[in-house]
Amino acid sequence: MFTFFWHFKHYLIEILPVLFIGFLLSGIFYELVPESIVQKYLRKNNFFSLFIIIIIGMILPICCIGCLPMAIGFKQKGVRLGNVLAFLVATPATSVSSVLMTLKFFGFWFTLYLCLSVILLGLLIGMIGNLIELHKDQNFQQQVSSTEFFLQFVPNKTLKQKILSILKYAFVYLPKEIGVEILIGLLLASLISSLNIVKFFVENFLVGIYGYIFSTIFGVLMYICSTASVPLVYALNDQGLGLGPSLVLLILGPLTSYATLMVVTKKFGTKIVVVYLTTTILFSVLSGYIFSLLVGYPLKI
Question: How far apart are the first and last CA of the chain?
Fold first, then answer.
């Protein structure tokens, strides 16, 4: 029990600042970004808009928890499903700090390959998401326009009204929408961490194909932000985990937190979360295996 609360406290200390930033950025985005820009660049179902939102996600200094409120903000603005999913992939998988740490621990080519893999995964899941759009744009627009909360977002507001609107959206509406899912995600992550399953898998699944099994299971079960995952994965690599499985863990860890999966389920449905999880796992394993081949470490059973 003590270990559980220690991990939960650790997660809270780590998450609360980025969650605050994510909520605030979402409020600013919703209130200040003109509808015309969203309509022109982010709502469209084309390669350019998908690529732009991936680059935006990779630049933003927030993790998978912090990007959730921004993704909800995109959704409320009418951004297409695939573009939102691409944002959820690109944002937590990379950050300036994580890229610099990966460069330090794993070198230039590994870091470059990781960044390219994240871009390709974002494009892939974005295109899949746009192909299976859940709702027609007309129906979605009717849903948004009928929501009483958003009647406050009208033009010609004073500076004070805009600030109050940003704060209300960021710290009243969004916590009501996804606060419970985030809390449950942190509790589950703390429980998994306190069970000390990491040592068991490290001792049993580090060689050949078992390295990929370990990275897949560990990456899906554990919440690991992109920056914090780098020294952990480097330590595992130093103990014998191959570069391919290491790459899998660096991609999967930040992308498959319980909070992310719960919010995606709530806002987009079970079908989408299955597509999100399946695509992410298969692509990560394939990407890691290809990198192993490129550096001369083929898979051994």
Answer: 38
Low-confidence spans in the chain with pLDDT less than 70: 34-41, 61-63, 96-97, 134-156, 181, 185, 189, 192-193, 196-206, 223, 227-228, 297-301
Q: 227-233: long-range contacts (C-beta < 8 A, 24 or more apart)? A: 227/63, 227/95, 227/97, 227/98, 227/101, 228/14, 229/98, 229/253, 229/254, 230/98, 230/101, 230/102, 230/105, 231/101, 231/105
Instruction: Please give the Cα distance from 150 to 103 (Å, whole number).
Output: 43
Residue 199: per-residue pLDDT: 61
pLDDT of residue 61: 59
- Count H helices and E strands in the chain, helices first: 16, 0
Provide the token pair at 190.
Answer: 């703390």
In a domain, 222, yes or no: yes
Give me the number of domains the chain comprises: 1
What one-letter code names the amino acid at 10? H
Residue 276, both tokens: 């999100």
DSSP 57-100: HHHS---HHHHHHHHHHHHHTT--HHHHHHHHHHHHH--HHHHH
Structural domain span for residue 9? 2-294
Q: Enter the pTM of the model.
A: 0.73
Cα 229 to Cα 27, 46, 59, 61, 174, distances in angstroms: 29, 33, 18, 15, 27
Residue 301 lies in a domain: no
Query: Could you tell me if residue 265 is inside a domain?
Result: yes
The two three-digit tokens of residue 77, written as one number: 């603005």
Domain presence at residue 229: yes
